[in-house]
Amino acid sequence: MKPAFDFKLQDQDGNWHSLEDYRGKYLVLYFYPKDNTPGCTKEACAFRDGRDDIRALGNVEVVGVSKDSVASHKKFVDKHHLNFTLLSDPDHKVIEAYGSWQPNKFMGRSFIGTHRDTFIISPEGKILKEYRGVDPNDHAAEIISELGQQMHIQ
Fold this sequence. Notes:
Layout: E1 8-11, E2 16-18, E3 26-31, H1 38-49, H2 51-57, E4 60-66, H3 70-80, E5 85-88, H4 93-97, E6 101-106, E7 109-114, E8 117-121, E9 127-131, H5 139-153
Parallel strand pairs: 3-4, 4-5
Antiparallel strand pairs: 1-2, 1-5, 3-8, 6-7, 8-9
């Protein structure tokens, strides 16, 4: 297992977060392209709706990251009643560090942007599992299942 990359980013309320803040907990760190777009909203709402199942597993936090601003994240959280932290990475340095800043295509147009990727990070700060190019329709359920298995093993 390789160490997770450290970060220091602001959440939707302007509070600073770092990887160290999650030491001792499992961290579901997911990267997504843009607030209030259909796929990103579906993924965020699935994590919101699965929060009780995630909490039932024990010491787990879910954190979303995109290059959107703190203000955009605040509106997204408020509009969809999200019950977890969103971090703003406007310079996409953390997104790049996790290998999630990649060429994309959308409606025939090519551009560089954030891929929909998720990392499960151990309480010791190690990457337990990577999910690349996830499907927002069933990803939260997939993560809950994987966390249950990981936490049962350890």
